[in-house]
Amino acid sequence: MVTQKPLPLGWEQREGWWPGNPFLWTRSSRRDGGPEAPSSGLGEAGGMVAGKPLPLDQERRDPIPWSGVPLLLCSVQPGGCTEEQDVLPYSVRVLLEAAIRKCDGFFVKKDDVMNILDWKTKQSNVEVPFFPARVLLQDFTGIPAMVDFAAMREAVKTLGGDPEKVHPACPTDLTVDHSLQIDFSKCAIQNAPNPGGGELQKAGKLSPLRAQPKKLPCRGQAACRGSCDSAEPDRNSGTFAAQIENTPVLCPFHLQPVPEPETVLKNQEMEFGRNRERLQFFKWGSKVFKNVAVVPPGTGTAHQVNLEYLSRVVCAEKDLLFPDSVVGTDSHITMVNGLGILGWGVGGIETEAVMLGLPVSLTLPEVVGCELTGLSNPLATSIDVVLGITKHLRQVGVAGKFVEFFGSGVSQLSIVDRTTIANMCPEYGAILSFFPVDNVTLKHLEHTGFDKARLTSVETYLKAVKLFRNDENSSEPEYSQVIQINLNSIVPSVSGPKRPQDRVAVTDMKSDFQACLNEKIGFKGFQIAAEKQSDTISIHYEGHDYQLTHGSVVIAAVISCTNNCNPSVMLAAGLLAKKAVEAGLCVKPYIRTSLSPGSGMVTHYLSSSGVLPYLSKLGFEIIGYGCSTCVGNTAPLSEAVLNAVKQGDLVACGVLSGNKNFEGRLCDCVRANYLASPPLVVAYAIAGTVNIDFQTEPLGTDPTGKNIYLHDIWPTREEVHQIEEKHVILSMFKTLKEKIEIGNKRWNSLEAPDSVLFPWDLKSTYIRCPSFFDKLTKEPVALQPIENAHVLLHLGDSVTTDHISPAGSIARSSAAAKYLTNRGLTPREFNSYGARRGNDAVMTRGTFANIKLFNKFIGKPAPKTIHFPSGQTLDVFEAAELYQKEGIPLIILAGKKYGSGNSRDWAAKGPYLLGVKAVLAESYEKIHKDHLIGIGIAPLQFLPGENADVLGLSGRETFSLTFPEELSPGIMLTIKTSTGKVFSVIASFENDVEITLYKHGGLLNFVARKFS
């Protein structure tokens, strides 16, 4: 092996320093600054870099050792492929290729390559490095990373270093998709009250893009679920269809006929208005940081843009081809695994490390082979398949493992089906779910704009390095474990009311909801007294009377990348809406309905297929492109609904086609939230309740009084596929890629500074230089003991990152609200926590501010705790602030799966700034544990079979802990309490890298010192 000079973290840009110099990957046509990228026949995403095809028969060349194609073919020793490589799972082969290509004896050693090659015996026993090809950020989790980079430049300058050396080394794309909130929502097809539940707007001037629609009143009857009265026009007539289909409106993004561009425009205008400061910061970053590209708001969700636009499948760098791969700051980045691209979510801090040219470190994973057999049930959508697989894999136990799909059933799944399944893998606990590239993948790439030369290069390369799956010719890899799932056994289902893994067959929904009302408060219980379960509360809304009861649907959202990427389920929802409208059904106006496509591609095919006006007729009009309701950015419910829910203590329900349904995520007053496929979201919205048996109870009645059942309007698989083939076409993908390239007027005209150091505005409430580097020294100090620490919070099981650091709206009574109010902001200007992740003062005050947080000290859900020296019950921030003034260190006691849910670095940064020195839990979500280490908080773990209750810990004691001079992975430490109890815990460090980072006080300090 050729020895290479180790890459110092303060490198200058030059060629030949190390294998695969990331500066050579700059996509100059999309990025500001940096050297020109080499051309290749593969091009770049969306054809941004064009050139002659890269030859695939090239020889290995110095100074790059272990280069891609020939060495992977020959394994470690030239002369032929090895049996070990032939039986490796495909996902492990990608790890092997990256290790070979990047092996330089420093970041990646030859032993690492050999360990991966010997995966069969080394799995779960060794740590291996992995260099992904690129990084994907979204704005909520991306802004703290970019703020940290900006702050690091300040710190490096303070320590005497050159701030201009601080650049991402790995190509980084930041997609602004989490800023969208629903401010405007009204129906395009009628001037009647909004069936989607939006606040009524005064009649105003219509967009010049839009023709004046005819009035088509829709007046739901109070006593009849989803029905329209006799005054409704004959919806089965050609006149009605013509009125809908001949309403010419141009979407401002795609220039395609769609309803209600004002809604999109107004929401986008509000998005730019309230987030201008953040967007200017992003644009500054794209100017001064090499290798950073920003996909502006209004384009789509990060995962959807990643799938449609950024993904390459095979990358080119200098004279090498290698598999595309990606890591990012969202756990659902795994969606791209369905395209045969290895990718998963890591912590924001680890993402920053990759951006700086360091590898991701992971335990060589077990790989569970999931064999799919049979054909899916005709009534089951891919979402049903996802929920079925989610439940099955949760039962099997795949936490911390790779899942790789194979079997005859895989070829029956389209790419959008596969990406939907892969998107949900964090919900069943796996690191990722991988579908190797096969003929179905190639066909999809052809349909989405890959030219013939590029497809040939991709296919030839992947087959040459044995990363192409062919069921007819390929022998099956060996897996750690093999499980089988018969797709035919999966029936239509939903998931809830509080967790994604709690799957309920639609046929059992009514009985299951009734059981939830009876059960004690928990994941499947609300504990409603029997005599209260039939209570109804009357409301008067927009001139009509309605009845709300337990199970009433008040939010229905077709939202999130989980489903919006899937034409079949989105078209199924549109066809169901069309049949429902034609049958005379509608949605009650108080239900907050919305449709937020994952990208403009969805708008395009819904519009071109003719179903979008019918969705809008039912209230599911497009409100913008982004995550909105999925991350809690829903518009407020009407006062009438809110008052009724509170008055009757009703278990109101939300139904969404998302991937998270934690209690209170959509709205504080909505206790039951169900994940469902888009057509089922529409169906439950029409029904107005989840307490319904679709087999025996009608959705409503048509104008003649005939009962209409779900099976009467459910579209067949053949109907959906016919429309999908006709309207999901090559030109659509090409057009959308071109539009992403062009951007939008608001973004293009946005002014931003281009100075080396960001000009921090001391008055800003969005962007603030964080205090992580305030006490940074040139050299790290020795680990200090934790002495007489108080417990800030005593928590139970399944505490999510939403509980720790909420992303939704800022409550008016919260510490963050007080901070913003003191700076002259009104509640309307608060925005969300996610939007203010660039302000450490807001985020620290928002830590543990979730109203659903259950602290055992308080005994009920509330963002409160007890300050034990004084005995006062205070907001968590106020208590922590008082502890810090008193010089008292803090710890947190928790149960199982602490930090589960979305990756969220502020769920570690926030506790750190509150003064938390350690967390003691039964188990952790890995991403969150990595975050804790990366910020300098010790992740301590109870011994197996022990927890706070078993050890008799009340949390009112003080805790003391001393670290040895030499830490090692999994070392046992001793804790002493003020009551005299002594017990052992595990320091949950997995490798020497994590120990090194912890000794430096976290990754940011480590990297800043290296740059200095």
UniProtKB/TrEMBL annotation:
Residue ranges of the Aconitase A/isopropylmalate dehydratase small subunit swivel domain?
Answer: 817-943
Query: Which region ranges are annotated with the description Disordered?
Result: 28-60
- Domain of life according to the entry: Eukaryota
Which GO terms of the molecular function aspect are on file? 4 iron, 4 sulfur cluster binding; iron-responsive element binding; metal ion binding
The protein's location, in the record's own words, is: Cytoplasm
Question: What Pfam family does this protein match (any one)?
Answer: Aconitase
Question: Which PANTHER family does UniProt cross-reference here?
Answer: ACONITASE/IRON-RESPONSIVE ELEMENT FAMILY MEMBER
Relate the protein's function as given in its record: RNA-binding protein that binds to iron-responsive elements (IRES), which are stem-loop structures found in the 5'-UTR of ferritin, and delta aminolevulinic acid synthase mRNAs, and in the 3'-UTR of transferrin receptor mRNA. Binding to the IRE element in ferritin results in the repression of its mRNA translation. Binding of the protein to the transferrin receptor mRNA inhibits the degradation of this otherwise rapidly degraded mRNA.
The protein's assembly and partners: Interacts with RBCK1 only in iron-rich conditions. Interacts (when associated with the 4Fe-4S) with FBXL5. Interacts with CIAO1 and CIAO2A.
Name of the protein in question:
Iron-responsive element-binding protein 2
Organism expressing this protein natively: Heterocephalus glaber (Naked mole rat)
